[in-house]
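Aim 2 progress update. The chain analyzed this quarter is reproduced below.
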Amino acid sequence: MKIIKTQAISGPNIFNHKSISIMTIDLEEYVETDSSMLPEFAERIQRDLPGLAKHRCSRGYEGGFIERLGIGTYMGHIIEHIALEMSEPAGASVSYGKTVYGGSYGIYKVVIECALPTFSRHLLHSAFHYAKAALAGDEFDLTKVYADGQRILNRDGLGPSTKAIVTAAQARGIPWARINNRGLVQLGHGEKRKFIQATQSWNTNSIAVDISCNKALTKEFLTRASIPVPFGRVVETEDEAIEAFRAIRGTAVVKPLDGNQGKGVSVNLTTDEQVRAAFRIAESYSRDVIVEEMYDGHDYRLIVVGGKLVAASRRCAPIVLGDGLRTVRELVELENQNPLRGDGHEKPMTKMRLDEIASMSLEKQGFTFDSLVPFGKTVILRESTNLSTGGLAIDVTDEVHPTIKTICERAAAAIGLDICGVDLLATDISKPLTKTNGIVELNAAPGIRMHHYPSQGKSRDVGGAIVDSLFPTANDARIPIISITGTNGKTTTTRLTGHIMQAAGKTVGMTTTGGIWLNDNQIAAGDTTGPRSAQTVLGDPSVGVAVLETARGGLGRNGLGYDWSDVGIITNIGPDHIGQDGIEDE
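Predicted structure tokens:
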């Protein structure tokens, strides 16, 4: 057997309304061989992949595939089910699969649902190579397949914040398209299109982002708005840091001026030595460092979207609980095996770190990384509470006092951020702020996974709030799409329809066998009846109506290129293209 090619198709296609990946294979010597002729092979795949017993297949009930395996089914169909079964332990469950004749003797197309092309390709190729190994009686490392799948998802998949927004858009019927591999996503079509990148939106002001990245400038804006912020200043040397610390006359925080995700932040500093060590850590992240008073209270992250508070979480420092048997290092390693924890932002919680800041925190408590922790003793790994450094989040949205809600909404408005993360220290979020409470930071592009997946409390759909701020209704994201296909007469019908729409005062984006047109302006020449040309029209900010000639060949080979059309026209169906692309009859 051999793989001929693998292809990903985005959007509706002749197999499914969802995106798919297709692996075309040549069965070669196994073309006439079914599973009933290979009892040892059938036994092995059931032993290695016990989940196959639950596959329904065409029988419609659990065990249906195993029945087919016993009676006799062919290798392409078996590889399809192997790929589906590998998907869940590899990190993303895939349920749709289909195997069809590929148009020539021994050639078959194995099709599976495709949420991420690189992941689906990995599943298909792994299933193929596993089947070959099982047929030959060779060893095969399934553990590596699963680990590589998870690595691909972490590397190429949408981040948790972007994924939450895309999921909300899909639930509202809003079309979306991924533009690159770094989270830039187009929402909507034509003149109604908008973009998001993580939690920065089409409406996010770049100057507001710059202000939020400069913590000292943010404090100046908030002070002008009479919003409480901690006393402190920016320093460039250790001696300046000590001078600023002594002016505070109390407990201090030291952090990089333009840091993020809690990197380089040290808190609860009470001595010159602690401040000097903290300055050196912060300096490794930023040339300029802030030394400011330490506000009292719990650490809260609140999210303001479109001028309204939509979520609030209490953030807790990462801790381990002693069992009298393990060291700090061993307890951290054990907790990091928690399936809810992952690297970076891939899981609801992030793995804990043992670094210089953790060492300083442990030293204050009389511990080192290799200290045995007494039974029942709580050890704080770091005093900053960011989820990115292993902290926990508890939802408190329903507890926020009205005055605090107003302060947060005014703070976001003060610097002009449409999506703003507000870091607040407060004794009790359900009561007005005290004199030693206030806002310590504002954040552009705030992470929202803590609100969607809190460690405790109710999940808050911040992604939905962001989508609603961009598109109050799904109609605000869509332009009319008229799609024309058939054997003959497509181009004439497309041009006539486009002319009528243009005469009605619409800006028309049109694809034909003669090129792409924006009203009377031709922007591309040639046969432009495939999905890429449709995406060109639907991505153009001037287009108010899309009139798209859709060729049979492009539709069969590459899919539709968009989710659905308002009007679909089939001019006729004739035998002209029979025998091409695996299509054998009308």
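The mean pLDDT is 92. The chain has 18 helices and 27 strands. These observations will guide the mutagenesis experiments scheduled for the next reporting period.
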